[in-house]
Every structure is written in C-alpha cells, then in structure tokens.
TrEMBL record:
PANTHER family in alphabetical order: RNA-SPLICING LIGASE RTCB (PTHR43749)
Biological process terms in GO annotation: DNA repair; RNA processing; RNA repair
Co-factor: note: Binds 2 manganese ions per subunit.
Binding-site list for Mn(2+) 2: H224, H308
Residues that hold Mn(2+) 1 according to the record: H206
EC number assigned by the record: 6.5.1.8
Keyword field: GTP-binding, Ligase, Manganese, Metal-binding, Nucleotide-binding, RNA repair
EC top class named in words: ligase
UniProt-recorded name of the protein: 3'-phosphate/5'-hydroxy nucleic acid ligase
Organism taxonomic ancestry: Bacteria, Pseudomonadati, Pseudomonadota, Alphaproteobacteria, Hyphomicrobiales
Catalytic site positions: H367
Origin superkingdom: Bacteria
Catalysed reaction, written as an equation: a 3'-end 3'-phospho-ribonucleotide-RNA + a 5'-end dephospho-ribonucleoside-RNA + GTP = a ribonucleotidyl-ribonucleotide-RNA + GMP + diphosphate
C-alpha cells in the first residue's frame, strides 16, 4: 500500500513539513512488509515534539570577552549583552560567547550581535549568519612586487558596488561548484546570479587591501567579502523554511530567530547549500587574486583564507553560529591552514593569527575591530567637519581609494573600535596568538556609491517644494 499524508492525519499525526521526512520512511517500511503498528511507531518517533517555549532567563550562560576601556563603550556592551541574554533563551541554545569587537547588528531583541557566537543542538538558524553568508578574508603572498601596482590593478580588475559584473567582464565560476547547485532546493535557479556576481566584492566594509608582511617585507593582497547575491538568496529561502518550522515547533520564538532542524530533509539540504556557498565564496576570492597575480606575472608564494560569518559544526555535533567571529581551532575546516586573518581598519595591520581554541571563547576569536556607533551616528558626530579634512587626517600615510570615486567616511578608521584595545583584549582573554602582520600600504573600498542618488532625490524634492511654494 502507499501511505500518504492523509493516512498519517487519519492516524492522528499533526500535519507539517516533517511529513516530507516521515512519508519515505513509512512507505519503505510498508514495502518491507511491516505492519501498521510498526509503521505508526516509526512515524511517531519522527514527529516533532510539542511546541517548546523559550528557556528561563539565565538558564544558559554565555562568556563575555570584552571590556569597556572608554565611557562610550559601556552602552555598546550593555546593548550587546541584552541581545545575547535573549539569544540564550532560545530552545536550541546551549552556549554562547561575545568577542572583543562586539557591537549590535540590529534593533530587534535577540538579533545576534557582530562578535557573537551561539552554539545550538540540532538547529541551524539562518538569521544568525545573515544574508552575507560566508563573509570571509583571503590572503595571497605576492612576493617582491610594487604595492602601488597591485592597488592600481585592483581598481581595474576587481569590482565593487551593487550588482554583478558587466557581461563583457564576467568570470566563470568553477564548473564543479556550479554543478552542486542542481538538485538543491535552496540553490536551484541561482546559477545565473552566481555567474553574474562572481569576481565581485560588494560594498560596506568589504575591501581590497595591500600591504607588506612584517616578518619578511613581502607584498600581500588581502580581500574581504562574502557570497554576494547567491548567498543572500540562500539566506532568504532559508528564512522562509525556518519560519514554517518555527510556527510548528516554537511560536514563542521571535521570527528572526527561527531555525531549521538540522537532521530533517530541509536541514540536510540547507547544510549542503551552506557548504556550496562557502566553496563559491572561496573561489570568488581566488578569482580576484589570480587576475592580479596573472597581470603581475607572478605565482603567489602562499595563500590561505577563513570565513567569519558562517555556521560551523564541531566534533561535539553542535552547530556554532558565528556572526563576525573567527574560528580559532586548528581543524575548523578541511582546508584550514591553521592560520586566520583579523583585519582591524584600513590604517592598521591585518593580523595573521593562530587560534587558541579558548573555552571562554567557545573556540572563536574576533573577526576585526567592530563599531561603537552605527554608520549614521558616526556621520552625525562628524557632520561639523569638512570631508576633505577628515579624509586627509585619517588616511595619512596610506593609499586609500574608493572604487566609486566618492569617499565613504563611515569606513574610515575612526568609525571602528580602537584597534589597539581590540588587540589588547585578544591577548587578555587568550583568544588568539598573533604570528605575523600585514602592514598597510593602501586599500580599496566601494565608497559612497549611493551619494549621487541621495543628492538627486534631495534636489528633486527641493524643486517640488519650490514649485508648490511658487504656485
């Protein structure tokens, strides 16, 4: 006989997306000759539990690896702690940690902060890696080359800002990576944006950084970006599926904290999709690096990379959601070099570190410098100063460029936490060992590509108001 969803409902099971996993099992047992009692027992073992509430406040603790060294950091840390305390109440949460670069990433209570890590049992929370899945940093050691030449090439060969590359400038993603898109519901149909956005870096705090190794003087290229539109679409699809599960499993859980049970049909597909997006993003870094190396006619002496916005699984079987936090154990991935990168700001060295797998960091270290104020607040605090003066002061001694041709003051060093304080706290809390540094020559960032659109809208609004007043 063929067992359908209607049959399960007749047997008293509440319908839900878990039927996708239960029906193949039920029909396999039926085909093998199992009786109804055995089939019903097997299905009952797969049925989701009764809805689960949030945990009591304080039941699950988290580690605090940050200290306020200046008065304005106190409010920032308090906001981070409010979010983290709410996250620890999730039914899936078993551990958490906050890094020295922590800062809030949203207003909704329980939004995982930058510099936050949440460990869960049998649950993948798409909202905890956000749309910028696998935001990561990659380095190629180029050797004895002209750093200005590398930066010049970056302005030509890389791509920042919205959208993908123009058709005549597109790069082909690896065939073996694109082949993995087929048959996965979270990746299906995304081959085109995966091709259009390959070789792009986006905007915000993503960069093309050139410097010299402190140890040897060799020139190095460091890039920072995530998975662009393909990753954003996987995140969107993941949140849709997670929301359906939330309604079934834990309606009390906030929507932005919805999760996909990892051991379900959807969970396995989502985990596979994350690994494919990781492979695409890694290839995206190396595609840009290879364009530069080929133009220089050099072979990189060494290269490695690491993600800091992802979901990791450790030998304990738990899922570690890192929002802007760097894995600090040696075998966090099959392609791990044992070294990781921690950029601070465009005027400070990129740290090359070896993680210490600290228990108080649940295995992580910081990903960068973080912020004490949001972008708008930073701009408001500097509104009284001339843009040229700010730019000259903060980029003194480095070759700072903006791909759009318009500076983005919200990405200058003063927009971030004090780099020296972050370094002190990395050491104070025993999170990582700095083994080398990439001393800055210069960097490229997207720049404020939206400014012309903003100014155009403002001018149009002023004209309309003037016309109305004249009429």
């Amino acid at each position: 006989m063929s067992i359908t969803g209607h049959q399960l409902i007749e047997w008293g099971f509440a319908p839900g997306i878990w039927f996708k996993d239960a029906l193949p099992v039920a029909n396999r047992l039926a085909a093998e000759g199992a009786d109804e009692a055995a089939i019903r027992a097997a299905v009952a073992g797969m049925a989701p539990p009764a809805t689960v509430p949030l945990k009591p406040a304080g039941e699950v603790a988290y580690h605090l690896n940050i200290e306020a060294e200046h008065p304005h950091e106190t409010d920032n840390i308090a906001a981070v702690e409010r979010h983290m305390a709410a996250l620890m109440r999730l039914p899936t949460a078993v551990a958490g940690a906050i890094m020295p670069d922590a800062c809030p990433a949203g207003a909704a209570l329980g939004t995982i902060p930058v510099g936050g890590i949440v460990a869960t049992e049998n649950a993948i929370h798409p909202g905890m890696h956000s749309a910028d899945i696998c935001c990561s940093v990659a380095i190629s050691i180029l050797g004895d080359v002209d750093p200005k030449r590398v930066l010049d090439l970056g302005m030509v060969l890389s791509h920042f800002g919205p959208g993908g590359r123009a058709p005549d400038r597109r790069l082909a993603p690896p065939d073996d990576v694109i082949a993995r898109f087929d048959g996965n519901p979270f990746l299906s149909g995304l081959q085109q944006p995966a091709a259009e956005h390959f070789g792009t870096q986006g905007d915000g705090n993503h960069f093309f950084f050139v410097g010299r190794l402190k140890s040897s003087g060799a020139v190095a290229l460091v890039t920072h970006h995530g998975s662009r539109k393909p990753g954003a679409m996987v995140y969107k699809r993941g949140m849709t599926v997670a929301e359906r599960w939330r309604q079934t499993l834990s309606p009390e859980t906030p929507e932005h904290n919805a999760w996909i049970p990892a051991e379900t049909h959807e969970g396995r597909y989502y985990w596979e999709a994350l690994q494919t997006i990781r492979a695409w993003t890694k290839a995206n870094h190396w595609a840009i690096h290879d364009l530069v190396a080929d133009a220089l006619q050099v072979t990189p002496e060494d290269r490695f990379w690491n993600e800091h916005n992802f979901v990791f699984q450790r030998s304990d079987g738990r899922y570690y959601h890192a929002k802007g936090a760097t894995p600090a154990w040696a075998d966090f991935a099959a392609d791990s070099s044992g070294l990781t990168l921690i950029p601070l700001n465009m005027a400070e060295p990129v740290l090359i570190t070896r993680g210490r797998d600290a228990a108080n960091g649940i295995g992580f270290c910081p990903h960068g410098a973080g912020r004490n104020f949001g972008r708008r607040e930073h701009m408001r605090r500097n509104a009284h100063r001339a843009e040229a003066d700010i730019l000259a002061e903060e980029t003194k001694g480095i070759d700072a460029r903006f791909y759009a041709g318009i500076p983005d003051l919200s990405e200058l060093p003063s927009a971030y936490k004090d780099a020296k304080a972050v370094r002190r706290q990395i050491e104070r809390f025993g999170l990582a060992e700095v083994v080398d540094e990439v001393v800055p020559y210069g960097s490229i960032m997207a720049g404020d590509w939206e400014r012309p659109h903003r100014e155009s809208r403002i001018a149009a609004k002023a004209r309309r108001q003037g016309d109305q007043a004249a009429g």
